[in-house]
Amino acid sequence: MWPFRRRRTQSDEGRPEPSSVDAALKLSEPASGRGLRWDRTLTWFMRLMALLWIAKGLSFWAVIVGASAMVPPFEDRSLGFQAAIVYFAVIDPIAAVGLWLTATWGGVLWLLAVMSHLVLAVFFPGVVPVSLALAVAYCGLMVTYLLISFLASGEDE
């Protein structure tokens, strides 16, 4: 029939033909005794952070367009405040998309966004006010991300 297909022999009669789909499914199934999968944990952590950072980015956009109850309005604020708000309104949603895609650049951009938020809060507290609890939470999230990434990188494939 088809010249490229292997002919079945008599020893092949009792055995089903191997399927490439079956082989792919076997590779994707986790081993039964493996326990916690760090790569899956990292994916869930990144997706959760993506949802939070999309909300954070949208809150900065709400300040820009005047949807928040901020007094004085955005255009009457200092240029430093306006620059910081626009910076976070742009970088946070982009970092969130990268996190959702579980891309390496998303994690790096997210770390940059968090670090820049903390640095601005330390050096310019009037522009970007951050409470101590929020600063500790940001540091905890960064350490958690780095730890899970380290553990996921050491997993056997």
Summed up:
This protein is mostly helical and 157 residues long. The protein is built from five helices and no strands.
Walk me through the structure.
- By secondary structure, the protein is mostly helical.
- Helix content is 64%, strand content 0%.
- It is built from 5 helices and no strands.
- The longest helix has 28 residues, at 38-65.
- The two termini are 40 Å apart.
- The model is unreliable at 23-27 (pLDDT under 50).
Q: What average pLDDT do the residues reach?
A: 83
**SS class:** mainly alpha
Tell me the β content. Answer: under 5%
Taken together, the total number of domains comes to: 1
Question: Radius of gyration, rounded?
Answer: 25 Å
Q: Report how far apart the termini are.
A: 40 Å
